[in-house]
Every structure is written in structure tokens, then in C-alpha cells.
């Protein structure tokens, strides 16, 4: 057993779908964002053990601010509007190590 984390960074993208009329991440493009992020990380050869993992998640309880994602181990929360925002989070935060202040929650 090792104390080292299996993934250096772990991204959870909320995919929650609500049926009661309240805002939810699923209706705000979460699926397309998650698929794009996963493909981009793979294309950059940043996926796999010791690297970055892009995951779908259930409700992260911040849908009103969404769509949302959280990156661990930092615990940084983001919102996004489109694929350009996802690319900025990948390039600046996941690759560059800098918080994307304009998207931070």
C-alpha cells in the first residue's frame, strides 16, 4: 500500500438531472462538457494512473450555480458556459497549475 494518490488530479463534473423544475447541471450541457474534457485529457496523454481522471458525478449540491465541477485534491469549484471554458480549466488549472479565477465558484 502507498500513501500516494492514484490520480494526481481528479475532476468531478456534475451530471445531475432534476425533474422538479429546479436548475440542474444536466440541462446546462454537462454531458458535452464531460465528454470533451475526457477526450482532451486523453489527447494530451494526461489520463491514467498518476495523472488526471475526468469523472461524471451525481449531484454536487450546487446546481443553482451550475453547471459545476470540482477538482481534487485542491477542492477547487468551477462553473463553465461552453467548451472554451472547459479548455481554459484544462490548460490553466490542470496543466498549468493556476486557478481560473473568472470561472471559480
Question: Can you offer a commentary on this structure?
Answer:
By secondary structure, this protein is an alpha+beta fold. It is 26% helix and 20% strand. It has helices spanning 30-43, 83-95; strands at 9-14, 52-57, 68-72, 76-79. The protein has a 4-stranded mixed beta sheet with strand order 2-1-3-4, covered by helices on one side. A hairpin with a 3-residue loop joins strand 3 and strand 4 (76-79). Helix 1 packs across helix 2.
- Tell me about the biggest sheet? 4 strands, mixed
Spans of at least 5 consecutive residues with low confidence? none
Please, what is the oligomeric state? single chain
Strand order of the largest sheet: 2-1-3-4
Write the layout of secondary structure elements.
Layout: E1 9-14, H1 30-43, E2 52-57, E3 68-72, E4 76-79, H2 83-95
Parallel strand pairs: 1-2
Antiparallel strand pairs: 1-3, 3-4
Helix pairs in contact: 1-2
